[in-house]
């Protein structure tokens, strides 16, 4: 193959494209020469540069790298004033940049590969810096030329720096030019070739290029441990199970993918991408598309790659979700330590302590898996135990958006060499700072598999969406308006100058949301909507939570307001309509919940479940065919997750139906008589409900039902913008 056979884009963006798998590997595997000018010289940049070169190097290709030393202000000042020999200062800076910060398997293997290539003359590194009458500076140009045996060239340039930060977190771009392209492309290729030739041969004005034998000797001595592994790229980016022969035990002690499980292509790609990013990243996958199995497949991948010398910590929001994970964890050759307040393993603390101790002293105990809740993970005891672990640690966080909260963010640190975040909605509602923290810690998205794609590819079922409009009664509306007025006096500006509620305002907002969640007209509307389904099965009535999930607790709770609505709904279904119905709340233990789900899945045994918070906790009930959602959350994270759980595939489930009880302050035909202040106080609720109607309606089988209601609401309130004003609370 030649470079012409590779399908290329004109531009690659690091957070949208997998640059290594889509660009470097396809081009370099058949190249004969790779010329690269990068940013700073460091062990981190060397690891990134090595991705894609293994097959080329094995076939006898040549690699030329130009890099710049990172000089401190003190170094530059010393050179400027002649305190020390310039080359000695540069040499010292280069050697200092060869650190041992990369402890993961692939980084070690890649540095070993590079050291071998330098030793055998396949790879040549030269150091460039700028110098003029004003002094010495850094050479920052970033470009590359790839050449094949037929004389074809691909040149590229742009902002992408070959460092882990640039490749994983920062938004970087490269532009691509082909020697067989149009005249403009050919000219750009020639310019890059001439520039690299001049720099490499030290003939470019104001740029000095030197070789530092002591630096290359240090690099070889530091990182060359064994013969090079030329199959490194295939192993890291294949997505297939990686076999290791180094273990002295025939029976693996760590995680393995069971033979009966076959991943979808998108799951394989996610695992390969995560491994390729040095086992750090985010799986942004719609609820119901296999996040758990993809996460477990990732654990199996890294466990094999590290010869099972690994501590795995899996963290989930609540007890019920932990138990769901445990059911799947054991399938992957793991015997988890299950840690939370009411764990069936009463001695889980002792088990965890022993596992950490045994990992240090027993070769057959180098792997262990600890699965726990958010609250228990953040406890002083567990944090102290984690600090004692000497082996590399993989932290897997399910529903990872929760970890943007301060309670958990403080636990995210460098103890965790490897990191994996799972979430259908990583972006935190009105918390840009918390969202940024998650990206900075876990890295880039290794897969983005949205609900729209999952429906198109038949991984989730299609659905019909029916918005059911209800209004606040007179007392509820009066109370709602009073709270809205009080909230308007609780606005302060954040660090970015945007309006937000102070602490008192947040308490008032919670009280106001409870009015909406418990609106009494929902019960009347439910009677009308559910009557045609009185003899049908697989129904879920999801009640509106009037209290907030406690992020510090192992399990959610149910308050008096919740109970009133649940009891009222259960009475309507069970007593008035004569349906077989069961409650599904925080009061039911896990055994009872399992029995309810089992009876619900068996046709005719249990027609309906009246539930609260189970969809937020992550409980799987695939058999749901028709959902009546009384909960009127304003948080996109919550209602997107709720919808995804209703759309899980099940035998005989051709499509799902969602009845969404949309709560508005007052009848639309009365809006025209409101004062301007009244309309303004209505607007926060109206816009939040509109946002959910639009989101649910756009992917439904009957989008016109939603569009018709959207038009009516917007017309009544004279709304033209999709986005709420910052002062609307």
Written description of the protein model:
- This protein is α/β, with parallel strands linked by helices.
- Helices cover 42% and strands 19% of the residues.
- Strands 1, 2, 3, 4, 5, 6, 7, 8 and 9 form a nine-stranded mixed β-sheet that branches. The protein has a seven-stranded parallel β-sheet with strand order 12-13-11-14-15-10-16, sandwiched between helices. A six-stranded parallel β-sheet has the order 17-24-23-20-22-21, with helices on both faces.
- α27 (676-698) packs antiparallel against α28 (703-717).
- The model is unreliable at 160-171, 239-250 and 546-551 (pLDDT under 50).
SSE map:
Blueprint: E1 11-13, H1 19-28, E2 31-40, H2 43-49, H3 54-58, E3 62-68, H4 73-81, H5 86-96, H6 105-119, E4 123-132, E5 135-138, E6 143-148, E7 153-158, H7 164-168, E8 173-178, H8 183-200, E9 207-210, H9 213-223, H10 232-237, H11 265-276, E10 280-285, H12 291-305, E11 310-316, H13 319-329, E12 337-339, H14 348-361, E13 367-373, H15 374-377, H16 380-386, E14 393-398, H17 406-409, E15 418-423, H18 432-442, E16 445-449, H19 451-456, E17 462-471, H20 474-488, E18 491-493, E19 499-501, H21 503-517, H22 521-530, E20 539-542, H23 560-576, E21 581-584, H24 590-601, E22 608-611, H25 614-617, E23 626-629, H26 636-646, E24 655-664, H27 676-698, H28 703-717
Parallel strand pairs: 2-3, 3-4, 10-15, 10-16, 11-13, 11-14, 12-13, 14-15, 17-24, 20-22, 20-23, 21-22, 23-24
Antiparallel strand pairs: 1-8, 2-6, 4-5, 4-9, 6-7, 7-8, 18-19
Helix pairs in contact: 6-9, 11-12, 20-21, 22-23, 26-27, 27-28
């Amino acid at each position: 193959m030649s470079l012409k056979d590779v399908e290329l884009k004109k531009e690659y963006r690091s957070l949208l494209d997998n640059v290594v798998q889509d660009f470097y590997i396809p081009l370099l595997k058949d190249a004969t020469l790779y010329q690269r000018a990068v940013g700073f010289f460091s062990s981190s940049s060397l690891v990134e540069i090595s991705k894609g070169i293994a097959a080329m190097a094995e076939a006898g290709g040549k690699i030329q790298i130009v890099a710049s030393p990172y000089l401190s202000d003190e170094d530059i000042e010393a050179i400027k004033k002649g305190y020390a020999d310039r080359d000695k200062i540069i040499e010292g800076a280069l050697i200092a940049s060869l650190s041992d910060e990369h402890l993961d398997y692939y980084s070690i293997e890649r540095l070993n590969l590079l050291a071998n290539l330098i030793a055998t003359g396949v790879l040549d590194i030269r150091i460039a810096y700028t110098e003029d009458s004003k002094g010495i500076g850094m050479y920052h140009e970033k470009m590359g030329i790839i050449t094949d045996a037929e004389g074809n060239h691909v040149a590229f340039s742009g902002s992408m720096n070959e460092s882990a930060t640039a490749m994983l977190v920062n938004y970087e771009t490269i532009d691509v030019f082909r020697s067989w392209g149009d005249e403009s492309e050919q000219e750009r290729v020639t310019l890059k070739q001439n520039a690299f030739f001049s720099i490499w041969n030290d003939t470019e004005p104001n740029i000095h290029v030197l070789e530092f034998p002591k630096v290359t000797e240090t690099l070889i001595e530091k990182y060359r441990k064994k013969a090079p592994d030329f199959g490194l790229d295939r192993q890291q980016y294949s997505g297939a199970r990686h076999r290791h022969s180094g273990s002295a035990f025939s029976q693996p002690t760590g995680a393995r993918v069971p033979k009966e499980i076959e991943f979808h292509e998108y799951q394989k790609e996610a695992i390969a991408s995560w491994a390729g990013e040095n086992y750090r990243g985010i799986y942004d996958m719609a609820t119901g598309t296999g996040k758990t199995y993809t996460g477990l497949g990732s654990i199996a991948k890294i466990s094999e790659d590290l010869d099972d010398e690994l501590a795995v910590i899996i963290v989930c929001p609540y007890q019920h979700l932990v138990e769901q994970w445990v059911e799947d964890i054991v399938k992957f050759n793991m015997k988890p330590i299950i840690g939370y307040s009411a764990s069936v393993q009463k001695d889980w603390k002792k088990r965890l302590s022993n596992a950490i101790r045994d990992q240090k002293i027993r070769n057959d105990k180098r792997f262990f898996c600890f699965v726990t809740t958010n609250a228990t993970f953040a406890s002083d005891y567990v944090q102290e135990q984690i600090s004692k672990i000497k082996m590399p640690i993989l932290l897997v966080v399910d529903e990872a958006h929760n970890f943007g909260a301060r309670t958990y963010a403080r636990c995210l640190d460098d103890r965790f060499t490897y990191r994996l975040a799972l979430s259908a909605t990583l972006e935190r509602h009105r918390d840009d700072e918390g969202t940024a923290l998650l990206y900075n810690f876990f890295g880039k998205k290794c897969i983005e598999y949205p609900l729209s794609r999952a429906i198109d590819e038949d991984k989730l079922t299609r659905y019909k969406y029916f918005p059911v409009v209800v209004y606040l009664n007179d007392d509820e509306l009066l109370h709602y308006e009073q709270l809205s007025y009080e909230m308007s006096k609780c606005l302060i500006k954040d660090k970015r100058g945007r309006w937000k509620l102070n602490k008192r305002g947040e308490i008032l907002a919670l009280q106001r949301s409870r009015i909406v969640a418990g609106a009494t007209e929902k019960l009347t509307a439910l009677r009308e909507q559910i009557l045609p389904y009185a003899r049908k099965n697989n129904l879920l009535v999801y009640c509106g939570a009037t209290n907030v999930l406690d992020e510090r607790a192992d399990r959610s709770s149910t308050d008096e307001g919740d109970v009133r609505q649940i009891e009222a709904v259960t009475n309507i279904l069970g007593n008035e309509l004569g349906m077989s119905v069961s409650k599904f709340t925080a009061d039911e233990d896990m055994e009872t919940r399992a029995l309810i789900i089992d009876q619900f899945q068996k046709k005719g045994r249990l027609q309906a479940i009246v539930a609260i918070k189970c969809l937020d906790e992550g409980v799987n009930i695939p058999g749901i065919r028709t959902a009546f959602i009384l909960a009127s959350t304003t948080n996109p994270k919550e209602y997107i997750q709720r919808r995804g759980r209703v759309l899980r595939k099940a035998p005989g489930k051709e499509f799902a139906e969602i009845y969404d009880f949309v709560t508005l302050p007052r009848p639309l035909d009365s809006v025209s008589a409101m004062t301007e202040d009244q309309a303004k106080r209505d607007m926060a609720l109206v816009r939040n409900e509109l946002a959910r109607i639009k989101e649910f309606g756009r992917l439904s089988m009957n989008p016109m039902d939603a569009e018709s209601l959207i038009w009516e609401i917007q017309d009544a309130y004279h709304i033209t913008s999709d986005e709420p004003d910052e002062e609307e609370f």
